[in-house]
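Please check this today:
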Amino acid sequence: MKIINKGAEPNRLGVFKAAQPDALWEKTNDVIGNAFRCCSARYQETQQQLRTDQGNICAYCEQDLLSGTNGALDDCRIEHFHPKSKQELGEPNWALEWTNLLVVCCGGNQRNVVNPLQRFDPDPQNYSCDVTKGNKVLDAIIFNPLNLPHFNIWKFHRSTGLISVNEDLCASHGLDVEIAHQTIVELNLNSARLMRARKSILNSLNDQITQSLSRGQTIEQARSFLAASVLRRNRAGDWPSFFSAIRFYLGLQAEEILVHPL
């Protein structure tokens, strides 16, 4: 999970919310009236703005968000950080609150998703992200990606793909270490499916570094070259899949490139 800097609220969302501030997200049989998702153009515009803001990676696991082809489902959907149905007296309509909306992957539970061999898992224990988060109110239990620091508070292990918490860094900056641990647990960011994907990315980086060393580069030079070529948005504006894992593995050279991009 990395920090998200949200752009301006999409026009169709703003217009709809101004006209119908108490509207639901989904149409229900027992409620008469328009709902946000009744208009596909509204939904698609909002989803696209979220994808742009997030660099087309999942707000929770940082896996790249894929569009379905040939009848396959997108590995992408809009998520409400605070459950849209959990509105207390005096609170905003969480269903339509722009700051409450994120875009996430399908969490491994969609059989007909694009690239199912990597994106679907038949074992519910390997579901992640909004699937395991469900309808729970976790505002004070896990980190909201909108409120994360700009530095990386996570560690990653190349041999397994495991994500863990940099406890010393969290403590030195006054961040709650327990909330960081609970973020991993509640979102199941160490599901076998995600660990396999991260391990593959990190092994690929290791192979490239090894090749660079064989050509006479130093480890610092190899990491700097990789950081400059990988840790940036591509022409479509996308961040690389598992950005924070790459950032951690490339170390100081990654931080230098992120502060002073070439």
Observations:
- Residues 11-259 form one domain.
- The chain has one domain: 11-259.
- The first strand starts at residue 77 and ends at 80.
